[in-house]
């Protein structure tokens, strides 16, 4: 796609990355993450694996500034400029070019599909290109075009998930964070959604961090992966194959106790 | 100067809420009386102190206020706040303590109680309902040719309801056919449709009974819709007496026949009233209180004049003696000569009916001069002639 | 399997008995004290106490629907006024002792509550609140146009003489209102501690989920609107005897609606003593201010108290006490 | 325990839906769907996103009123009954998006159906029974927590626990496993199997095919509001419409 | 009352003009209450504040009230922003029920009302603009400028805000923010700022509505209470968060009131207006334009 070609180019030259060092975080007395080191390098798709309640979402919330670390640092480099995310508000982080497809979708149920998408272009950098972005989203998700005037809240779970991804793309992000995109999707759509993420990544030159339960699907598109167990990084794998081969993954996912 | 404790006069009075405009005006007049009297050495050689609490225009706090005044503050005398609700709410407490009760503008408030120590300052006379609109209907009948039809309209509240009931009786007695008889609710903003409905019944006379915001709304709607065939328009329109509405409506008032309690006409120059009004206006304007002081102030002052005279003459604060004295005396006050009759009402009713004439522009000062509010009724105070029909008089 | 959990602390929290003897005994004692001091105390204090207790009844009644079930009633004044006008109407038809009027008012306004419940059964949240507001306006219009109870002109209800053992009619009114307040609180406690309270709490949190759990939400809501309506109306029934002359603006006063909401909020809506404390506190403040600061400023102070209170203690006094206890333990 | 309704005869289906149709405005979300469940049966209900599964559950349990069709439960016509009446008869569901009672503790959350959904409520034993249920979903250690402090998964478990407390004859689990790890999915499936062993019929709505295949005796497939397949899991899976519309590849 | 076309058309015309004014009164409620979930019961008090500011501007500075209201509305906007910030700080940030906010606004209502009493006194005040004294006649329909001008201003105001809400990013964010506050952050908007702006606009409209009110009728500080019911009724009738709905509902209420008052007798108009609301709620609980 035309609009993205230059982005890819810039991305490659200037680099968009996330670096997390020694991160501790939690909710009040509940400590969820301890001593996380994690890196997402420019142009990569990194999968964040781990069963429920192990802190994947919390980690993503730390990147998005929704949860403040008690210790450690979260930095992002956007087009070569480094930012300390732990000091920024969520909206400012989005403003930098980091977008989130949140857990539970978090759409605006009483706005129409199109209004939801347009709101995605709120940040200054995205506003001018909103028409192109919208056309792009409709091309990627024809279902959304069909339902453009339906209220988001009355769409089915899967339709909503598409809309959530579409809305995130409307912010013209450099880095995309996705929290469990396949939850509640039909098998046919799980694969399609994961493919869409991979495709978007390609077309828009994104850097992606994806938390996902569905190990086989996640692994299909991941360049690297981390496995989170009880708030620690249990495994950091530099290629998909070593993830597949790891005992931990087998134990966690294939129920092989 | 005197070592004796002051004489304390207690009341609850509206200083906030819907009745506050009247309450504050009345209170100022009373304070002026207290100043005057204290300057003259007080009563029985004792200074006078007014003890008052804000009743918030809410009658449900009134019983408590009077119980406190009488039992706890141990005031020597009690008087009422403004208007019927507050008076009646205080009555059981006051009656139980057998206090003399001078009251300010209660409509037939004593009819049910028949309390013999009750004295009421609004000059309605013993039959308020019938008396109120008598002057208006007489003015209507004085026209030539005699009017045949009348429209009655008023607000959904106590005063308008009584005024309308009286007007209905009087109109029937006078042989006027009632062609419109409706009420409107308190929050009405838009009166044009009311006026148009009235107009469509083609009455000769229109009688309105209203509270302040409606009075203004009514007059303006009449101007906009136009009542071409009507001979006489007016009624018991509370609020037209106040400076605020007078100056706002200005020339729109011309021709309107309205009830009033005082007007600066030559026929009403009671001794002391002009000096009082001068002093009242000095203080009212800076306090945001009605700067003309025609409606309630002179009679509020007079109320305390009466009470003061009773105390001085009987040389006592004994309620029985005071009541006896007030019942049997004719008082000369700045509000005129007053004597009380049945149920503590004025023995001789004195509802004034005035017609606004020659008003131009919006200055308040013009209303302080004679000739703007020409008194048509009662004859004793009559100061000019009725202009009609209404469209003529409006010019 | 069940025996495993009998020792768990949460398992021990079996619902307490719905009837509260201590409150009843306190009420009896209160009435006894009132009867004893009848002649020694100035009527002023009786009147002040009456008004405060009237607010206790109002805020307790409001809280049954507003606090327990989460249905915020803006139309308190409508129920209160209907209670007043029941007394007036009965007085016109066939004068009867006040306690009977109070019961009759409870029946009439309970029916109104039931009707409100039916009419608004599909309404949730603010829609319900606005509907109750509208209901009060419609009711006021009806009363204004109903001349049998005085209409716009208002109606007089003269106090009869007080009978033994009461020192005065005001004293009698106070004792009646005390009984009413204790009864209202007992009803609130019973609801709170019984299965009705639990069902209402479930409805408050999520009505659809409650239905799916077998909670007959309509029936419970109707129970709550009826009981709440009856209590609000009974609070209004003696009012004509307090102020002797009632016209629609004084019966449908905004101050009532405001207080009935503000008091439970200041006290706390989750438990029965929240509204009671709130009513006593705010009611007393208003009474004291009326007779101390004799100017328009007293309403100003009520406003400031309200603002300061809800900003400083957002969960009401109940919440404050709970936090204090938590902090201590 | 609940007695079998006198209307019901052996062999008769516990739930029978005929011609159920639901429209939202001009959009037909359910198009004349027929549906039966035998007592003690395990039925999987699958279909693409937006195919009307949740809508179907809502119609069956009374959260929505269908425009057409009749629903019979244990031999009794329940089309016009309120949701709570159906719950009391033993037709119980969990919600796809958890809807806990946020101001009540987990314990009380489970007590609500214990007190309301059972024909004869056990007032004294309810606390113990509630703890048992919390234990069976692994939340007993958090009995006095507020649902606000739970993770998504725990909320789903609570959702299921609340349904259990209502002593269902037929339990409809609407995506109770979405977002669970495989071992947790197995845990829930086992839980459901245990319930089923007690004679409870179960409709499982799920996108996790592994679980659906393992659990279901019969699978019903909805596509665009229409039932396109109904039968033996393996046959249904090989059905070409199903492959095309749902499974992909 | 006997029926006549003259009366009917005039009643409808008056109703529409009244409706235009009601729309101005209710639009701020629709924004604050419908969209932001803030039960601003003090809105009518802000309206009266606007009335007195307009009164002050013409009587002590000689500034035309329509012009002054624009300026004061801007001030009101900034005041509203700070006010919301305080409200946010004390209530929303703590995640409290909007019920607490309700009591808060009751308090604010008393404070504003009594402050006005203390500053301006309790007299009824009114602005009589000579250039609005005209009454146009179209056929037999009378259009008094005193009512028509406020109606036009009210309708224009609602349309302008609707345009703003649907066509600008901040506007859309305002609509979104009430539905999911945190999610607004995910599109890069600051929800608090967004709500600040929205509440500022709501207060701004109150100031303008106040000016319109005092042009139409006499005003004293406690008169605002009477608009609480109507304003909320219009908001609900219109479907809570819909400005076109608010406009239509305001017109419906206005016309219903004038029609009843012409043909049935005015004393029944509140029963008709609010009965209409009750019926709507009973049969279409989400209001006319509810989503
Ligand atoms: N707001 C909160 N307050 C307290 N504890 C919380 C909160 N949110 C999450 N937790 C706890 O933090 C832990 C980690 O939660 P998190 O949502 O990060 O897990 P996850 O790996 O994303 O799991 P899931 O698959 O459920 O999304 C859980 O045990 C949860 O109970
Ligand atoms: N209240 C409503 N108004 C309008 N359309 C609705 C409403 N509720 C559901 N729909 C539509 O009905 C269709 C079926 O929705 P439903 O939630 O039943 O799907 P589902 O099969 O449960 O999907 P998923 O697997 O994604 O949860 C969807 O297209 C949805 O958009
Ligand atoms: Mg998660
Ligand atoms: Mg679904």
UniProtKB/TrEMBL annotation, chain A:
Pfam families: ABC_tran. Keywords: Amino-acid transport, ATP-binding, Nucleotide-binding, Transport. Residues 18-255 form the ABC transporter domain. The keyword Transport applies. This is ABC transporter ATP-binding protein. One of its GO terms (molecular function) is ATP binding. GO terms for biological process: L-amino acid transport. InterPro entries: AAA+_ATPase, ABC_transporter-like_ATP-bd, ABC_transporter-like_CS, BCAA_Transport_ATP-bd_LivF, P-loop_NTPase. SUPFAM superfamilies: P-loop containing nucleoside triphosphate hydrolases. Belongs to the ABC transporter superfamily. The keyword NAD does not apply.
UniProtKB/TrEMBL annotation, chain C:
This is Branched-chain amino acid ABC transporter permease. It comes from Aureimonas fodinaquatilis. The chain crosses the membrane at residues 21-38, 44-65, 72-94, 100-119, 126-149, 169-191, 222-243, 249-266, 299-321. The keyword Signal does not apply. It is found in: Cell membrane. Its main location: membrane. GO terms for molecular function: branched-chain amino acid transmembrane transporter activity. CDD domains: TM_PBP1_LivM_like (cd06581). Signal peptide: none annotated. PANTHER family: HIGH-AFFINITY BRANCHED-CHAIN AMINO ACID TRANSPORT PROTEIN BRAE (PTHR30482:SF10), HIGH-AFFINITY BRANCHED-CHAIN AMINO ACID TRANSPORT SYSTEM PERMEASE (PTHR30482). The keyword Cytoplasm does not apply. One of its GO terms (cellular component) is plasma membrane. It is a multi-pass membrane protein. Keywords: Cell membrane, Membrane, Transmembrane, Transmembrane helix. InterPro entries: ABC_transp_permease, LivM-like.
Automatic annotation (TrEMBL), chain D:
Residues 15-249 form the ABC transporter domain. The keyword Membrane does not apply. Keywords: ATP-binding, Nucleotide-binding, Transport. InterPro entries: AAA+_ATPase, ABC_AA/LPS_Transport, ABC_transporter-like_ATP-bd, P-loop_NTPase. GO terms for cellular component: plasma membrane. Gene3D superfamilies: P-loop containing nucleotide triphosphate hydrolases (3.40.50.300). CDD domains: ABC_Mj1267_LivG_branched. Pfam families: ABC_tran. GO terms for molecular function: ATP binding; ATP hydrolysis activity. This is ABC transporter ATP-binding protein. It comes from Aureimonas fodinaquatilis.
TrEMBL record, chain E:
Pfam families: BPD_transp_2 (PF02653). One of its GO terms (cellular component) is plasma membrane. One of its GO terms (molecular function) is transmembrane transporter activity. It is a multi-pass membrane protein. The chain crosses the membrane at residues 7-35, 41-58, 65-84, 104-122, 143-165, 197-219, 231-256, 268-289. It is found in: Cell membrane. InterPro entries: ABC_transp_permease, BCAA_transport_permease. One of its GO terms (biological process) is amino acid transport. Keywords: Amino-acid transport, Cell membrane, Membrane, Transmembrane, Transmembrane helix, Transport. Its main location: membrane. Belongs to the binding-protein-dependent transport system permease family. LivHM subfamily. This is Branched-chain amino acid ABC transporter permease. It comes from Aureimonas fodinaquatilis.
């Amino acid at each position: 796609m035309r609009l993205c070609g230059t982005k890819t180019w810039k991305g490659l030259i200037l680099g968009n990355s996330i670096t997390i060092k020694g991160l501790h975080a939690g909710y009040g007395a509940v400590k969820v993450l301890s001593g996380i080191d994690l890196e997402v390098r420019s142009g990569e798709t990194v999968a964040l694996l781990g069963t429920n309640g192990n802190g994947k979402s919390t980690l993503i919330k730390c990147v998005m500034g929704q949860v403040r670390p008690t210790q450690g640092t979260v930095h992002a480099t956007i087009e070569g400029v480094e930012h300390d995310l732990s000091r920024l508000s969520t909206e400012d982080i989005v403003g930098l070019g980091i977008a989130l497809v949140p857990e539970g979708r978090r759409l605006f149920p009483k706005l129409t599909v199109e209004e939801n998408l347009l709101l995605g272009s709120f940040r200054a950098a995205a506003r001018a290109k909103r028409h192109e972005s919208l056309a792009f989203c409709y091309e990627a998700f024809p279902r959304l075009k069909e339902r453009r005037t339906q209220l988001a809240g009355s769409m089915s779970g899967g339709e909503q998930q598409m809309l959530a991804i579409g809305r995130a793309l409307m912010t013209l992000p450099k880095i995309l964070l996705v929290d469990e995109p396949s939850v509640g999707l039909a098998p046919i759509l799980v694969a399609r959604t994961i493919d869409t993420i991979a495709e978007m990544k390609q077309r828009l030159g994104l850097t992606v961090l994806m938390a996902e339960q569905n190990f086989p699907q996640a692994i299909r598109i991941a360049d690297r992966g981390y496995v989170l167990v009880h708030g620690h990084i249990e495994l950091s794998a530099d290629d998909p194959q070593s993830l597949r081969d790891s005992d931990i993954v087998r134990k966690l996912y294939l129920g092989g106790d | 100067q005197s070592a004796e404790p002051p004489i304390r006069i207690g009341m609850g009075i509206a200083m906030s809420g819907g009745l506050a405009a009247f309450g504050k005006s009345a209170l100022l007049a009373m304070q002026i009386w207290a100043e005057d009297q204290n300057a003259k050495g007080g009563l029985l050689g004792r200074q006078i102190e007014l003890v008052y609490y804000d009743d918030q225009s809410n009658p449900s706090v009134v019983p408590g206020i009077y119980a406190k005044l009488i039992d706890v503050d141990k005031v020597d005398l009690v008087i009422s706040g403004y208007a019927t609700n507050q008076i009646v709410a205080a009555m059981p407490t006051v009656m139980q303590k057998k206090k003399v009760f001078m009251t300010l503008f209660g409509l037939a408030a004593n009819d049910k109680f028949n309390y013999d120590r009750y004295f009421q300052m609004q000059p309605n006379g013993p039959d308020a309902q019938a008396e109120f609109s008598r002057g208006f209907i007489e003015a209507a009948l004085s026209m030539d040719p005699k009017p045949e039809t009348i429209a009655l309209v008023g607000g959904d509240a106590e005063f308008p309801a009584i005024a309308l009931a009286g007007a209905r009786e009087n109109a029937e007695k006078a042989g006027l056919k009632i062609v419109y008889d409706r009420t409107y609710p308190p929050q009405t903003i838009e009166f044009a449709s009311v006026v148009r409905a009235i107009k469509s019944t083609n009455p000769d006379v229109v009688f309105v009974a209203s509270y302040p915001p409606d009075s203004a709304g009514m007059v303006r709607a009449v101007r906009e819709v136009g009542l071409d065939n009507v001979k006489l328009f007016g009624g018991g329109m509370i609020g037209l007496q106040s400076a605020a509405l007078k100056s706002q409506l200005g020339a729109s008032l011309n021709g309107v026949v309205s009830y009033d309690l005082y007007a600066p006409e030559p026929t009403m120059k009671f001794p002391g009233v002009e000096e009082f009004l001068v002093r009242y206006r000095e203080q009212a304007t800076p306090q945001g209180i009605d700067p003309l002081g025609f409606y309630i102030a002179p009679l509020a002052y007079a109320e305390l004049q009466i009470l003061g005279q009773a105390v001085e003459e009987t040389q006592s604060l004994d309620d029985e003696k005071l009541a006896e004295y007030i019942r049997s005396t004719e008082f000369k006050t700045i509000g005129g000569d007053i004597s009380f009759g049945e149920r503590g009402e004025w023995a001789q009713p004195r509802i004034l009916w005035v017609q606004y004439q020659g008003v131009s522009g919006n200055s308040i000062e013009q209303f302080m001069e004679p000739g703007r509010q020409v008194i048509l009724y009662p004859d004793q105070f009559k100061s000019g002639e009725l202009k009609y029909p209404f469209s003529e008089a409006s010019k | 399997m069940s025996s495993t959990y009998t020792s768990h602390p949460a398992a021990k929290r079996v619902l307490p008995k719905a009837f509260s003897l201590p409150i009843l005994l306190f009420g009896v004692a209160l009435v006894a004290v009132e009867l004893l001091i009848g002649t020694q105390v100035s009527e002023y204090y009786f009147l002040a106490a009456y008004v405060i207790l009237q607010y206790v009844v109002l805020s307790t009644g409001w809280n049954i629907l507003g606090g327990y079930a989460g249905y915020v009633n803006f139309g308190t004044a409508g129920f209160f006024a209907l209670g007043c006008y029941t007394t007036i109407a009965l007085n016109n038809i066939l004068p009867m002792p006040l306690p009977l009027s109070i019961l009759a008012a409870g029946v009439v306004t309970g029916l109104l509550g039931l009707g409100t419940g039916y009419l608004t059964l599909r309404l949730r949240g603010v829609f319900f609140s606005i509907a109750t507001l509208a209901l009060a306006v419609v009711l006021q219009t009806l009363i204004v146009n109903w001349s049998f109870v005085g209409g716009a002109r208002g109606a007089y209800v003269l106090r009869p003489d007080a009978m033994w053992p009461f020192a005065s009619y005001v004293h009698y009114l106070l004792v009646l209102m005390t009984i009413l307040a204790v009864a209202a609180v007992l009803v609130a406690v019973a609801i709170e501690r019984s299965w009705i309270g639990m069902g209402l709490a479930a409805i408050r949190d999520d009505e659809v989920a409650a239905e799916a759990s077998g909670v007959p939400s309509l029936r419970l809501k109707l129970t709550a609107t009826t009981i709440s309506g009856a209590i609000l109306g009974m609070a209004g029934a003696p009012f004509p005897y307090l102020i002797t002359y009632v016209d629609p603006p004084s019966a449908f006063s905004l101050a009532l609606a405001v207080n009935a909401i503000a008091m439970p909020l200041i006290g706390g809506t989750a438990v029965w003593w929240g509204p009671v404390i709130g009513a006593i506190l705010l009611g007393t403040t208003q009474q004291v201010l009326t007779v101390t600061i004799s100017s328009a400023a007293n309403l100003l102070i009520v406003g400031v108290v309200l603002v300061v209170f809800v900003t400083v203690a957002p969960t009401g006094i109940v919440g404050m006490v709970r936090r204090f206890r938590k902090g201590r333990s | 325990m609940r007695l079998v309704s006198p209307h019901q005869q052996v062999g008769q289906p516990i739930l029978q839906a005929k011609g159920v149709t639901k429209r939202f405005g001009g959009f037909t979300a359910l198009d004349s769907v027929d549906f039966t469940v035998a007592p003690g049966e395990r039925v999987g209900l699958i279909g693409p996103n937006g195919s009307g599964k949740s809508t179907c559950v809502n119609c069956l349990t009374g959260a929505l009123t269908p425009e057409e069709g009749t629903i019979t439960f244990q031999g009794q016509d329940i089309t016009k009954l309120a949701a709570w009446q159906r719950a009391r008869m033993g037709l119980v569901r969990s919600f796809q998006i958890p809807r806990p009672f946020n101001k009540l503790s987990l314990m009380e959350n489970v007590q609500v159906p214990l007190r309301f959904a059972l024909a004869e409520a056990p007032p004294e034993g309810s606390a113990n029974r509630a703890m048992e249920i919390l234990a069976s979903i692994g939340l007993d250690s958090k009995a006095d927590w507020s649902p606000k402090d739970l993770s998504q998964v725990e909320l789903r478990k609570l959702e299921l626990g609340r349904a259990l407390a209502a002593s269902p004859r037929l339990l409809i689990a609407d995506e109770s496993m979405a977002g669970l790890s495989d071992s947790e999915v197995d845990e829930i499936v086992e839980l459901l199997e245990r319930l089923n062993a007690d004679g409870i019929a179960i409709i499982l709505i799920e996108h996790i095919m592994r679980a659906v295949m393992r659990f279901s005796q019969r699978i019903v497939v909805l596509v665009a509001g229409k039932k396109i397949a109904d039968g033996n899991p393996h046959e249904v899976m090989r059905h070409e419409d199903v492959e095309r519309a749902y499974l992909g590849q | 009352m006997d029926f006549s076309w003259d009366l009917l058309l005039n009643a409808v015309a008056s109703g529409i003009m009244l409706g235009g004014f009601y729309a101005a009164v209710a639009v701020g409620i629709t924004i604050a209450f419908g969209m932001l979930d803030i039960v601003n019961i003090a809105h009518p008090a802000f309206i009266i504040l606007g009335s007195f500011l307009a009164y002050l501007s013409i009587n002590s500075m000689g500034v035309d009230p329509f012009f002054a209201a624009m300026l004061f509305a801007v001030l009101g906007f900034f005041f509203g922003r700070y006010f919301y910030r305080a409200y946010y700080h004390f209530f929303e940030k703590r995640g409290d029920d909007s019920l607490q906010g309700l009591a808060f606004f009751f308090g604010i209502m008393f404070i504003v009302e009594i402050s006005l009493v203390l500053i301006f006194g309790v007299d009824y005040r009114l602005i009589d603009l000579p250039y609005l004294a005209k009454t146009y006649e179209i056929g037999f329909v009378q259009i008094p400028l005193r009512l028509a001008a406020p109606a036009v201003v009210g309708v224009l105001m609602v349309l302008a805000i609707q345009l703003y809400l649907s066509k600008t990013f901040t506007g859309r964010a305002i609509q979104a923010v009430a539905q999911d506050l945190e999610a607004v952050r995910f599109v890069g908007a600051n929800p608090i700022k967004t709500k600040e702006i929205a509440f500022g606009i709501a207060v701004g409209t109150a100031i303008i509505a106040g000016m319109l009110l005092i042009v139409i009728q006499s005003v004293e500080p406690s008169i605002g209470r009477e608009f609480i019911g109507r304003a909320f009724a219009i908001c609900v009738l219109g479907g809570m968060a819909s400005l076109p709905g608010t406009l239509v509902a305001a017109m419906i209420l206005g016309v219903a009131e004038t029609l009843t008052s012409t043909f049935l007798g005015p004393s029944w108009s509140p029963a008709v207006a609010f009965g209409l609301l009750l019926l709507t709620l009973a049969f279409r609980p989400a209001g006319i334009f509810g989503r």
